[in-house]
Amino acid sequence: MFRQPPSPFFRPEDAVQRGMSGTALVIDVREPDELARTGKAKGALHIPMGRLRAAANPRDPMFNPRLSFETTLALYCGSGGRAQNARKMLEDMGYKDVHVIGSFDDWISAGGTVVAT
């Protein structure tokens, strides 16, 4: 029997639960001005899409040590499109367990906590 690869999408409710329990690292790939207007998911790491490649590359001086190839990552953005592009980029870089939550509104609708930035 073949094992199916993990889904590239998390149900927002699952992402909220996993983010709050620490079993997934939630990453907000929106731009700083978007966060200034809306806040971000509580506990989320903010890495704008344009900086994600450097932040995820252990050989880059801008590498963020919270990122690990073994960590489950859950991404969101304003509408879901950038998060999908970020998932593809991270997978191409060798990250194995990367999921898309969807939009910031999906996080809120699922009961996720929002904090001001």
Question: Any overview of this molecule?
Answer:
With 117 residues, the chain is of the alpha/beta class. Helices cover 37% and strands 18% of the residues. A four-stranded parallel sheet has the order 3-1-4-5, with helices on both faces. The chain has a two-stranded antiparallel sheet with strand order 2-6. Helix 3 runs parallel beside helix 4. The longest helix is centred in the last third of the chain and has 12 residues, at 81-92. The termini are far apart.
Please give the share of residues in helix: 25-40%
| End-to-end Cα distance | 47 Å
User: How many individual helices?
Assistant: 5
What sort of overall outline do the alpha carbons produce when their principal axes are compared?
globular
Which percent band covers the strand fraction?
A: 15-25%
**Mean pLDDT, rounded to whole units?**
92
Largest pleated sheet: 4 strands, parallel
Secondary-structure-based class equals alpha/beta
Strand order of the largest sheet: 3-1-4-5
Count of extended strands: 6
Low-confidence stretches: 1-5
Order of helices and strands: HEHEEHEHEHE
Radius of gyration: 13 Å
Entry summary:
The protein is of the alpha/beta class and 117 residues long.
Supply database-style keywords:
117 residues, alpha/beta, four-stranded parallel beta sheet, 5 helices, 18% strand, disordered N terminus
SSE order and pairing:
Layout: H1 12-21, E1 25-28, H2 32-38, E2 40-41, E3 45-46, H3 49-56, E4 73-77, H4 81-92, E5 98-103, H5 104-109, E6 114-115
Parallel strand pairs: 1-3, 1-4, 4-5
Antiparallel strand pairs: 2-6
Helix pairs in contact: 3-4
